[in-house]
Write the structure tokens for this entry.
Amino acid sequence: MIWHIAKKEIHHNLMTLRFVLMIILLPVLMVANALIYGFGDNGYREEVDTYNLAMERRLSRVKDDAETSLGRLAMRGPGEIYKRPSRFKFCADGADELIPRSIPISERAGGGRGGAVAEEYSWREVWTLEYLPSNHDSDATTLIKIDWVFIGIFMSFFVILFTFDAVAGERAQGTLSLMMSNQISRGQTLSAKYLGAFFTLMVPLAIGILMNLLIIYLSGNIRFDSDDWLRILGMIGVFALHISIFIFLGLFFSSRVSNAITSLVWLLLTWVCLAFIFPSLLGLFVGTLDPIPSIEIVSSRKRAQLANIEDEFRPQEMLEVTKLSEAPAPSNPSATRQWATYFTRRHETKTRIADQHVDQQLRQVKLARELTQISPIVCFQYAMEGLANTGIVSYMNFVKQVRRYRQTFIDFIKTEDRSDPDSLHIYPVREGLSQKPIDPNTVPRFVEHISHQSVIFPVALLILFNALFFTAAQLSFLKSDLK
Amino acid sequence: MLTTLIRRELLDNLMTFRFAAAVFIILLLVVTNTVVLIKDYEQRLASHNAAVRMHQRQLQEKKTYSAGTEKLFVDRPPNPLSIFNVGFDKQLGNEIQVSYNYVPSLWDAGMHGSDNPFMDMFASIDIVFIFEVILSLLALIFAYDTLAGEYERGTLRLVLTSHVRRGHILLAKYISAMLCLLVPLLMSLLLAVILLTATAAISLNTDDFLRIGGIILTTVVYLSVFYLIGMLISAATRRTSTALMLSMFVWGFLVLVYPNMILAVVPRPEAPQERSASAFNEIEQMWEAFDRDRKHFLTTDALPGEDWHFKIMGSGWYGAYLWGNPGRLSYTYKSRMEVDTLNEKAEPRIPHAQNYFGFLGPQVAGTADRTWFIRKSALEDIFIQPANVERLYLKLSPVGLYDAATQAWAGTDLLGIRDFFDAARRYRQHVIDYFYDAEIFRSRQWFSSDKGAADWRNLPQFSFQRVPVNTTAKRALSDMCLLFMINTALFIMIFLIFVKSEV
């Protein structure tokens, strides 16, 4: 019986103007998306080319340093570490243009200070990670992009237009009481209406997605492997969950009020709040609720702490003898140890402050993201970003992995250095480390692992929203009058 | 008769759920949003004040004038009316160095104030956005059944049996619906203005209130466009269900799809590489000519050699070089000398150094002024013109026109931001005039603080006043006129359809 009513609903929906409008607009948007991302100026291919070029430069630098000496490699580090561009930016752009594409490393070198014995010593400080505050190359004028997420948000608007009169309309026409006079429970009626709307909406979506993927495939710019197809299937599943929430929401309001237009007004206002107002307002609210120290304050704190170290090791007053009066050399282990302490203190201070600051920034974003997830539309967006490996969470994962790699690289240097009997084994001073070249192929490489853990929470919330609105719609329909 | 009709329509609209919902939701959203936006503004203002203090401190710390000119910054304060329409207020640079050796422009500005740039990914919404999206939707919901509903119910025939002109019916419906839409608009804006005036950090003057008046007027015209679109659909379709669906489709397209899609779909005009290269080349040549003159001066002065620092260093810093950035077409000659103590042997060379810097300063300032004319026109061609073309595409939708007009009223449009840089350029001229009058370029403190540090107390102070309200109105006028024209065209179309339709 459910299928019978669902089929009737589907037939009815297919004949409506709203279906015609949707079957025109949705594929148009999907095709536009495919053309923009498949053939556009800043498409995936250009990003991959830039990434490959940067990787080549980085590897050649590491090779040169490794072939010179381990000491040089240890001081200059592994070079700027780039984030691999995502194939799925067309699905979820994730404000990608605001997110840094790489984590560069900072290097500092110079000569000795006047008056010190080590005046002629040209030193090089050990490398540190330097987080960029944002993507400096970005000329983004708008954050909203025509990606699958935008199309999904637009589609939820259409879902509302499909469901606002699902019960209220039948009630006004009197067909609801007629239907209820048959041997059919209210639960079955509601499920049938849900299925009818769901399948009607999935048809244009499926057509749109097929056209989109076909164009992207034909463009030849993006190649998918089997894992990617699974991710696309996952995204379609997230789409289905998202649509389903709004169908339940529509059925809830439609059965709650007597007039279809009242139901529409409620639904549209709820939709606008969920799609635009809550995400922006709560994001802005977190910024005022949980302020973090400004970039200027962090920089001045860093400068002050580094100045303290400078004062301790290389006082401004031109004393005859300072802790760094003697230049480090393989023949002078005590001076080399002093320089190592100096460099280590500076390195630790810089690393601690930089890591803490970026952690604070990312924690603030995380809090804002958690708050905004009271909107199912935002959950949908985050789930899509998680599957596409775009957005700020992908950057957070990247930062974590780069930090792990930093430790791996340092451990590698120390291990390699231990195998050289001529070395003083004093890290991180060039003269305290092995001066022999090493095989560049043994240097650990940074490999970015894509994690889909961030998908779990928003998907769980989407399922929860489905259950919640299903219950609300059921209860509302069970308690509603037939006339 | 018209008054009776208006009264009837007004009562009809006021008693509806959609009116109650409109008032409730708009009030709630505007008030909540204003509170959050005021907090955000206060943070930005605090950040601006901190930057001003920091720049003043950094300037005071500089003991020579040549070093100080590298630390002379002016800061753009956040615009309190950005709460209505944020425009470019947060997006574009808000600090700029003012130096004799280059003319400051929008492209040289830096940014301060964002403690967490990652938070920018939460798009900030303003009051205009709420009207743009929600009130336009409500206007369509008010309009979709205004004629179609009467056709369906048969009440139109009844009304037309009396001696009522069709034009009067349309006018009555239009006026009453607009009055109903004005209620939530004015109430919410009144509350927003009360909140703004109650905030200590914000002080609004008469011009600001007039600007807010301009924003209200533009909002009314914008809402009228959407109401008339709904009415047109209602008159043309004569069925409420069809009118509703079409209205929603049109709203979705005009408000959501078009403004977001058009910039991505329309190819961005290619930056004219040749124009950029030729302008940079020309600028570079002018600076090279300057450098030749500079070297010629050094070789022909009383001291042999080309040493620009005249070997007078005791302790301190110095540096001088030509510096260029082809991407931004900037090119300049930077020269800084910060000497704390001088060698006694250097004393006879001091007058020569003073003479050289007295020659150099005006030369550098003059070359910067001359290259600015080339740079300005090239930057306009390369950046501003393509941006204007993109804005034109956006203005094909009433949303784009409304956004542009309210940005102009609020002073957060591109021209409003550029006013600040015009003020920075005027300030630079005042500083240079002061340097001439006080013979700073020629002074010992230009390069050395051994006999007293540079005195920054008499330096002209920077102040930035927003342009008068009549200039703002002129900037908003073209977009408002277009909105008016759309209104008129829509009304004529509705009238023609309605007059010719059979009842």
User: Anything to note?
Assistant: Strands of chain A lie at 81-82, 102-103, 105-106, 109-110, 123-124, 128-129. Confidence is low (pLDDT under 50) at residues 113-118 of chain A. The first helix of chain A runs from residue 2 to 14.
